[in-house]
């Protein structure tokens, strides 16, 4: 690839190239060295991606090894912007200077998922750099600050958490850049990058509509968080209603059992009253029957005595003793004695 081919493919003007002060020979050396490490860098990317995919709130993971042409174009653009660390870049140090040779994106569904992901990332690695990119006008950055992240406004409106890790799978250290963002932010950034670069980076009309698109993506994230909160609130209310319904059913069941017990006690009481009434009636009947029988027996004895009065004179005292002095029968005995006396006279 010649310099002219590179400038054309990268959409870099001759004026910009001159301004950068880059040496094409050095860029060729970097390009040649970079090609020899492509497979190693892919292994590094896969290693990190597999670990990140296991983090709870991570929805999906994407990774890439930086394209050779994009690497050279980035060096030129950083030199144009006057980035000091790129001034002395060469094939021996570009691995340390360029932080996104290996790029990984961890995507999540809801905005607040980034908190758990952040804690998980820091529990696994010790990032050399950790910052949060926000859009100009974003006000809800307190949560990000509480995580210890450095807040930085991105000129193009990107929102994401950025981490840089240093690994050494080969004889030289490799920087790995991790970006954590929502799926909506990822969609917008992919479209923005696809449309804006390389031909419309300075087109104001395109930039204006992409800015609107960025705000819509932010609104979509807000709506997602709102719906999540709404569903959580509805679930809590549903649980409360279910609990109240269970408690109400338990109370009704207890009342039903209590009423059944009261009914049973009432029936038992009624049966007891009926039984007592019948016993009283039978007792009265027995009393009446017993008195009549005694009187009839006494009357029979009395008649027998009267019949024998003509032939014998039974002792009134013996009759009284036999019947008892205080009994009703004694009274009959007295009557019998008086009658016998009248007969003998």
Structure description:
With 345 residues, this protein is of the alpha/beta class. The chain has 2 domains: 3-201, Beta Polymerase, domain 2, CATH 3.30.460; 204-266 and 274-292. The protein contains 12 helices and 6 strands. The chain has helices at 3-10, 14-20, 24-35, 38-53, 68-80, 94-97, 113-124, 142-146, 183-196, 204-308, 316-323, 328-344, and strands spanning 60-65, 102-108, 129-134, 150-153, 160-167, 174-182. It has a 6-stranded mixed β-sheet. Strand 3 (129-134), helix 8 (142-146) and strand 4 (150-153) form a beta-alpha-beta unit. Helix 3 (24-35) runs antiparallel to helix 5 (68-80), helix 9 (183-196) packs antiparallel against helix 10 (204-308) and helix 10 packs parallel to helix 12. The longest helix has 105 residues, at 204-308.
Which helices and strands, and how do they pair?
Layout: H1 3-10, H2 14-20, H3 24-35, H4 38-53, E1 60-65, H5 68-80, H6 94-97, E2 102-108, H7 113-124, E3 129-134, H8 142-146, E4 150-153, E5 160-167, E6 174-182, H9 183-196, H10 204-308, H11 316-323, H12 328-344
Parallel strand pairs: 2-6, 3-4
Antiparallel strand pairs: 1-2, 3-5, 5-6
Main attributes of the structure:
alpha/beta; single chain; six-stranded mixed sheet; 64% helix; Beta Polymerase, domain 2; 345 residues; 2 domains
What's the pLDDT, averaged over the residues? 81
Gyration radius (Cα, Å) is 56 Å
Spans of 5+ residues with little confidence (pLDDT < 50)?
310-324
Number of self-contained structural domains: 2
Strand proportion, as a percent range, falls in: 5-15%
Amino-to-carboxy terminus distance: 175 Å
Helix content percent band: 55-70%
The CATH superfamily name of the largest domain is: Beta Polymerase, domain 2
Q: Which fold name is given in CATH as the topology of the largest domain? A: Beta Polymerase, domain 2
Give the strand tally: 6
CATH hierarchy: architecture of the largest domain: 2-Layer Sandwich
